[in-house]
User: What shape does this take?
Amino acid sequence: DFHNFTALNQPQDHPARSMHDTFYLKGAGQNLLLRTHTSPIQVRYMQHHEPPFKIIAPGRVYRVDSDATHTPMFHQVEGLWIDEAVSFADLKGVLTDFLRKFFEDEKLRTRFRPSFFPFTEPSAEVDMSCVFCGGAGCRICGQTGWLEVAGSGQVHPNVLKACGVDHEKYMGFAFGMGPDRLTMLRYGIDDLRLFYEGDLRFLAQFT
Assistant: This one.
């Protein structure tokens, strides 16, 4: 509970703690759960390392959700960069460059929309121009010309403090995205569950 919620500036009444969203486990007097994101990796790293550092935290995560675009278990990748002068401009540069490389399109456009996450401030949702219509608007992007691909922001001082990092000296950014979703967009796949059904006819295209 501490690594998944408390250290990430999420109070006890935060909706993410609901049993409708989180798998809770019975333990020996402990508040145990299956992690809902890979942020606990970042928390543990900050607790045991001195800045500056840059890390990538991939892993399996679990949420009470299942449909064509959600599964109870899926993959997430988060990034964290902590140093004395890491700005939001650095965050924008890193994510824009990554998306252009991943989708092999140096003209790919990105936008950062103001959002709210308890563990970052300021926070932003990251969109990229729709790879299916080139930004003109289509069924996939809901006629907007944009696709949401990541959440991001400057790490909240309360998170740094909870992890034992000097929040007056250090700052940085974090981001999170789903490699499953990025792969769906990259290869035009419309059902996330196909990745987990073991159909070799489907999986063979990635070899």
The chain has a mean pLDDT of 91. The first strand starts at residue 24 and ends at 26. Residues 6-193 form a domain with the BirA Bifunctional Protein; domain 2 fold (CATH 3.30.930.10).
